[in-house]
User: Which sequence fits this backbone?
C-alpha cells in the first residue's frame, strides 16, 4: 500500500504546489491556466486569500488549509504505520471534522459570528485532516485498481 | 450485481444537483465550502444507488461508487454549462439580477469581489471556445470532486464485515 500512498502523496503535493505556483508564476499562461482551474473549486476572493507578493493564492484561506492539512496528514500516514492501521468511525469522524467548517461558514454568512483568518485555518485544517484519515485507504485502493487495470491492458496488448 | 443501467438515474440526480448548485447564483455559494455542492452530488448518487439496492442485486462495491462519482461529475459538467448558457440565452441577465436581489435581501456577508465577479460574468462574451473550455474545466474538476464525494459515500454506506 506504500506505493499507492506515495502516488497519492505526489498528486496531492502537485495540487498544493499549484496553489502557490499560480501567484508565483503571475503573468504567464501557466498561471492563467492554474487560476482558471482553481476557479472551478473556489471563489478565489482576494480579501479571503493568502498572498504571495501582491497576488492571491490559487484558492482561498479555508481551501488552502483544507488541502495543506490533507497533505500533512498523508505525510504522517506515510511514515506512521500505527496511524495507517488505525480504524476510524466514519460517521463520527465526518461529523466532528465537517461540522466546524460548516458552522463557521454559515455563522459568518449570516453575520452571526464573523469568520476570521484563524477560524478559517482551524476549521479548514480539521476538515482536511478528517478527509485524509477517512479517504486515504479508499483512494489508495482506487490507485491500486488503476495500476492493476493498466498492467492488464499492457499485458493484453503485448 | 446491479447492471450499469441502474447507475444512470442516481448519477443523473447527483449530476443535476451539482449542476443546479453550480449554475444558480446564490446557491453556488455552497461551493465556497470546498466544493461542498460537488461533493454532495457524488454522495447523493451513492446514497440513491445504495437505497435502490435489493438483496438480489448484491452488496455495494467500491468500483460501483467510483463509477457513480465519475458519471455524476461528467453529467454535472455538461448539464451545468448547458443550463448556464441556456438560461443566459433565454433570459439574458434578468435571471442573474433576480437571483442577486434575493441574495442581497438575505443580507448575507459577501465581499465586494463577489458582486464584481457577477458583473464581470454578465459583461463577458459567450463564445464557442469559452463554452468548450468551461465544459473541459468543469469536467475535470467536477469529476474529481464528485468522485471524492462518492468515496465518502462508500465509506459511510459500505457493507459491514460479517462478525
Assistant:
Amino acid at each position: 500500500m506504500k506505493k499507492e500512498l506515495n502516488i497519492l502523496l505526489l498528486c496531492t503535493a502537485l495540487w498544493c504546489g499549484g496553489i502557490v505556483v499560480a501567484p508565483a508564476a503571475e503573468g504567464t499562461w501557466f498561471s492563467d491556466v492554474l487560476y482558471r482551474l482553481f476557479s472551478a473549486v473556489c471563489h478565489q476572493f482576494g480579501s479571503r486569500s493568502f498572498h504571495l507578493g501582491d497576488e492571491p493564492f490559487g484558492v482561498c484561506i479555508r481551501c488552502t488549509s483544507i488541502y495543506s492539512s490533507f497533505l500533512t496528514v498523508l505525510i504522517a500516514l506515510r511514515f506512521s504505520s500505527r496511524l495507517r492501521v488505525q480504524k476510524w468511525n466514519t460517521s463520527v469522524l465526518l461529523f466532528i471534522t465537517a461540522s466546524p467548517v460548516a458552522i463557521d461558514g454559515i455563522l459568518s454568512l449570516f453575520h452571526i459570528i464573523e469568520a476570521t483568518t484563524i477560524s478559517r485555518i482551524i476549521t479548514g485544517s480539521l476538515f482536511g485532516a478528517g478527509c485524509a484519515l477517512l479517504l486515504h485507504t479508499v483512494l489508495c485502493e482506487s490507485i491500486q485498481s488503476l495500476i492493476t487495470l493498466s498492467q492488464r491492458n499492457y499485458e493484453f496488448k503485448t | 450485481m446491479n447492471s450499469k443501467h441502474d447507475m444512470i438515474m442516481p448519477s443523473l440526480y447527483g449530476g443535476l444537483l451539482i449542476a443546479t448548485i453550480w449554475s444558480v447564483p446564490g446557491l453556488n455559494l455552497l461551493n465556497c465550502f470546498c466544493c461542498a455542492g460537488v461533493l454532495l452530488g457524488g454522495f447523493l448518487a451513492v446514497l440513491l444507488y445504495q437505497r435502490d439496492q435489493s438483496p438480489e442485486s448484491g452488496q455495494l462495491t467500491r468500483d460501483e461508487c467510483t463509477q457513480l462519482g465519475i458519471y455524476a461529475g461528467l453529467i454535472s459538467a455538461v448539464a451545468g454549462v448547458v443550463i448556464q448558457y441556456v438560461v443566459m440565452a433565454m433570459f439574458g441577465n434578468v435571471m442573474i439580477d433576480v437571483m442577486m436581489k434575493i441574495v442581497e435581501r438575505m443580507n448575507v456577508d459577501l465581499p465586494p469581489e463577489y458582486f464584481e465577479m457577477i458583473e464581470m460574468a454578465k459583461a463577458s462574451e459567450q463564445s464557442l471556445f469559452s463554452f468548450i473550455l468551461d465544459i473541459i474545466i468543469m469536467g475535470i474538476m467536477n469529476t474529481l470532486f464528485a468522485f471524492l464525494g462518492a468515496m465518502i459515500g462508500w465509506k459511510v454506506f459500505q457493507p459491514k464485515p460479517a462478525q
